[in-house]
Write a structure and sequence with these properties.
This protein is mainly α. It has a single domain, classed as 434 Repressor (Amino-terminal Domain). The protein is 68% helix and 0% strand. The protein contains six helices and no strands. It has helices at residues 3-14, 17-23, 28-35, 43-53, 57-68, 72-114. Helix 1 (3-14) crosses helix 4 and helix 2 crosses helix 3. The chain is globular and about 35 Å long.
């Protein structure tokens, strides 16, 4: 995962950029610079961000290092840590997606049983989506 993603998730947890900057003991522009890859975050801020997000600190530190590192040999060193995090986030997204499909199936069954439109006067034969239906009576 990229440093920008970690920062945006942290902002979501705390309610915005300034709240996250305050939590990490940084100026607000430090987060803006980090999100745009102009500079990385200090290691202590990376660790606090990792603790907030409940991820391994080395993943956030590696993302921070990769944000600005130009030397190919150093990028090659940090890349496996970020790819490990990427694989873990893909696995988590897959689990969430599967869980989402399961809950959507349950909703479809519920809608099929109870209907999708409340009982209305017989004069109304179209719902708000434009689909025709026969009112229950």
């Amino acid at each position: 995962m990229k440093l920008k993603n970690y920062i945006e998730i942290g902002e979501g947890h705390l309610g915005g950029r300034f709240a996250l900057a305050n939590y990490l003991n940084l100026q607000g522009n430090a987060l803006t610079d980090a999100k745009s890859n102009r500079r990385g975050l200090p290691n202590d801020a990376c660790i606090k961000l990792a603790q907030l997000l409940n991820v391994e600190p080395v993943e956030v530190i590696a993302a921070s290092e990769l944000a600005t590192e130009k030397k190919p040999e150093k990028r090659a060193f940090w890349l496996p840590f970020v790819e490990h995090a990427k694989a873990a986030s893909i696995a988590l997204a897959t689990v969430i997606t599967i869980a989402g499909f399961a809950s959507n199936d349950a909703k479809e069954v519920l809608v099929g049983v109870t209907g999708f439109e409340p009982a209305t006067p017989a004069s109304r034969t179209q719902c708000s989506t434009g689909l025709s239906y026969t009112p229950r009576g």
